[in-house]
Structures are given as structure tokens and as C-alpha cells.
Write a structure and sequence with these properties.
With 145 residues, the protein is mostly helical.
Length: 145
């Protein structure tokens, strides 16, 4: 009798599993195709967004460059006007001499970018990135115990 009850329970369990499995798995081909289409749409949207961001920053760089050029032209116009229309004392107060202006070397390729470290004073000095920079060597203490 126990064997019969076990076999009946097994058959009922297998039947319930076969009946419930397709409903629980949600792996129908239409659902898979729908998810793949959604993934492709998101990938296209992401690529469009990246292109839009690149175009935006490219246009921003062009506008900043144009603004700098126009500012330099205005500065040079004011400098020439101050030199032509004002006496020497007033002109030097209003605008610095041409060799000291902020645009004096803007067209030359000799401009050097700022350094992110302190230059050495002499060749024997350790650099700021050296492991021992700023540390003094201490002699080991002798124990007098």
C-alpha cells in the first residue's frame, strides 16, 4: 500500500510539473524575440546618445575657440586705441605693454604647458616624487638597557 501511494504521488507530481512548467518558464519564442528587439533598440539609443554628446562637445570647443579669438581681437583693439588716443601714462595704466599682455605669445608654438611638479633646483636634488623627498634620515637609537 505504501508503494502504491508513493507511485500515485509521483505520477501526480510529474503531471503537475509538466502542466505548470510552460507557464512558469516564460521562455516562449515571441518573448525572447521581444527582449532581443528591446536590447537592440537600447543599443541604438545609446549609440545615438554618445554621438549627440560628441557633437555637443565638439561644437562647444569650436565656440570657446571663437570666443577666445574675438576676445583677443577686442583686447588688441582696446590696446591700439589706448596707445593712439591716450597719453603714455594713461595707456600703460589701462593696458600692459604688448610683451606683457596675456596674448603676447598666444600665436607662437613655443608655449609650454604648466608643470604638475616642482622643478629641481640642481641635478643632485631629489625630485618631489622621490620616495625619500622631505624625509630626514635618523640614526638608529642604541638601547642602553
Amino acid at each position: 500500500m505504501i508503494w502504491l501511494t508513493g507511485i500515485v504521488c509521483l505520477v501526480v507530481g510529474v503531471a503537475a510539473g509538466l502542466f505548470a512548467a510552460p507557464r512558469l518558464s516564460n521562455s516562449s519564442p515571441s518573448k525572447i524575440e521581444e527582449l532581443e528587439a528591446k536590447i537592440q533598440e537600447l543599443q541604438r539609443h545609446h549609440a545615438d546618445y554618445r554621438d549627440h554628446v560628441s557633437e555637443h562637445f565638439s561644437a562647444t570647443a569650436d565656440l570657446v575657440h571663437n570666443m577666445t579669438e574675438i576676445y583677443r581681437d577686442v583686447y588688441q583693439h582696446l590696446s591700439r586705441g589706448a596707445q593712439d588716443l591716450c597719453n603714455e601714462e594713461v595707456a600703460t595704466k589701462l593696458l600692459p605693454p604688448a610683451d606683457q599682455s596675456m596674448f603676447s605669445g598666444a600665436d607662437s608654438d613655443t608655449m609650454e604647458p604648466p608643470k604638475d611638479y616642482a622643478p629641481r633646483r640642481d641635478a643632485n636634488q631629489s625630485g618631489a616624487l622621490s620616495e625619500g623627498f622631505g624625509l630626514e634620515r635618523q640614526k638608529p637609537m642604541d638601547d642602553d638597557r
